[in-house]
Design brief:
The protein is of the alpha/beta class and about 500 residues long. The chain has 14 helices and 18 strands. It has 2 domains: about 325 residues, Alkaline Phosphatase, subunit A; about 80 residues, Arylsulfatase, C-terminal domain, CATH 3.30.1120. The longest helix is centred in the middle third of the chain and has 32 residues.
């Protein structure tokens, strides 16, 4: 039965975790996350707006897309397009605080380089990637390198396993097995510190009494399984690389896809042998399992508090990782599903009807804030990109729910313009910097064959372009410039909007 009490809210959000690793039957061992899904609701078609930390996290906190909040890429480098959200935008945390919630924040912020969580209603614990974070000095390590590019490598020696040569930049080691400092393996590093802080906060929040009058919201944000996949041996040895299967799309050479996709693979990741790819995947799974272990500690503490029944738990990530799909790793410009499809699992024993369900409707991180507000009994502001997912918690199916997912990628540190429109059957990717992509998801779920230039699919592509423009109007996107050198979409906005001027996708 749906609860009439204002729920507590617990958000556990990892960094760069693809949705696949916690799916039933996946080789990655994620018992605590899977248990949450069995006791709650898993959204299998949950997506981030951009495969990049800051824009996605800003969308989570504001309920609007990057074209509205203005955070387009990393806010903590000299290449930031904007260093914070646009003035006047309110975050849902402020509404919770005003309604009497006590909010505590530990872990990764990376929403703004102009504000901290405390500026938006949170009590700060061990916050990482705050407004004082500056990543450029680490990126400038090349200034101190010798001519061969790496002070730690003998250029005549064989390339170590997992290392990618990057002359003049400093070589990159994608994964490492670290010596464990205890039999547990997970009680080391910054994520352990963040989780410990969260456990102390949870004990304090749940032992103060008066839950009905003073609900709480706790955010716990570790940085794993973000690259590099450096994992204690207790977890790494649980996965034998010899038993890891290469992703179905690994053998895609990307010949029919944008040249930057090809360059990423050829310049970096093709240095790794198939065995190294398997080893990297095994380390990613081990890292994901370690984060699941942390989540289990938090859930055990919540169970012990006696407040699980009236707590809305959200298990999320900001974006995914290719993890070898199409021969790629990390995240960025390639618009493949593995970098965009994120875990989104909710549990609320007193508030979710028919637990144990899976919901396949398209949802995004923009929908999280509106959902939290409605669950807390607060009004959802007008003008948001996202909508409340509360009907799904009640086992209802809204008739007018969006039938597509939309992305807004504006590059990472190199600037690109890319938009994707995905329905259940098709995916169109507008690449302002190269030729477009079109995939038949029913027959080609791994996005192997680009159909964008095949005339037989022109009308499908045209309708998806129309949907892109309608969503662009709704979100005040900046891709409408008609100048000859930038108006690269195959059909302009007038094709979609001139007759009805509708602004709904």
């Amino acid at each position: 039965m749906t609860s009439t009490r204002r729920p507590n809210i617990l958000i556990f959000m990892t960094d760069q975790e693809q949705a696949d690793v916690s799916l039933p039957g996946h080789p990655c061992n994620m018992p605590h996350t899977r248990r949450l899904a069995q006791e709650g609701l898993r959204f299998t078609s949950a997506y981030c707006p951009t495969a990049h930390c800051c824009p996605s996290r800003a969308t989570l906190m504001t309920g609007v897309y990057p074209s509205v909040h203005g955070v387009y890429n990393n806010v903590s480098t000299n290449t930031a397009i904007r260093r914070g959200v646009r003035p006047g935008l309110r975050m849902w945390s402020e509404d919770l605080r005003a309604a009497g919630y006590r909010l505590q924040y530990t872990g990764k912020w990376h929403v703004s380089a102009e504000e901290d969580p405390s500026d938006r209603g949170w009590e700060e614990l061990d916050v990482t990637a705050n407004k004082r974070a500056q990543m450029q000095p680490a990126h400038d390590r090349w200034r101190t390198l010798p001519p061969d590019g790496n002070p730690d490598r003998n250029p005549a020696a064989p390339r170590p396993a997992g290392m990618v040569f990057r002359p003049g930049w400093g070589d990159l080691t994608l994964y490492r097995t670290l010596p464990s400092q205890s039999p547990l393996g997970y009680d080391q590093g910054n994520d352990w510190k963040v989780v410990q802080s969260g456990l102390r906060a949870l004990e304090q929040l749940t032992s103060s009494g008066g839950q009905a009058d003073s609900p709480w919201c706790l955010y716990v944000g570790p940085i794993g399984p973000h690259d590099p996949y450096n994992v204690p041996d207790v977890f790494a040895r649980r996965y034998d690389p010899a038993n890891v299967q290469l992703p179905p799309s690994y053998f895609d050479t990307c010949e029919d896809k944008p040249r930057v996709y090809q360059r990423m693979r050829r310049q970096y990741w093709d240095q790794l042998s198939p065995d190294e790819i398997r080893d990297a995947i095994a380390h990613y799974w081990a890292y994901s399992e370690m984060e699941d272990t942390y989540f289990g500690l938090v859930m055990d503490a919540l169970d012990a508090s006696g407040q699980r029944e009236d707590t809305l738990v959200l298990r999320l990530s900001d974006h995914g990782d290719y993890v070898g799909a199409h021969g790629l790793f990390c995240k960025g410009v390639p618009a493949f599903r593995e970098a965009y499809n994120v875990p989104c699992i909710m549990s609320w024993p007193a508030g979710i009807e028919k637990p144990g369900r899976e919901e396949d409707s398209f949802v995004s991180l923009a929908d999280i804030g509106p959902t939290i507000l409605e669950a807390a009994g607060l009004p959802v502001p007008d003008g948001l990109t996202g909508r409340s997912m509360a009907p799904f918690l009640r086992a209802e199916q809204p008739e007018d729910w969006p039938d597509a997912f939309y992305s807004q990628m504006n590059g990472v540190e190199l600037y690109y313009t890319q938009r994707a429109v995905q329905t259940k059957e098709w995916k169109y990717v507008y690449n302002g910097f190269d030729f477009d992509e079109l995939y038949d998801l029913k027959n080609d779920p791994h996005e192997m064959k680009n159909l964008a230039e095949e005339p037989g699919h022109a009308e499908v592509k045209r309708e998806l372009v129309r949907k892109m423009w309608r969503f662009g109007v709704k979100t005040d996107d900046h891709i409408f410039n008609p100048y000859a050198t930038v108006a690269m979409a195959p059909w302009g906005p007038g094709d979609a909007l001139r007759e009805t001027q509708e602004v709904t996708a």
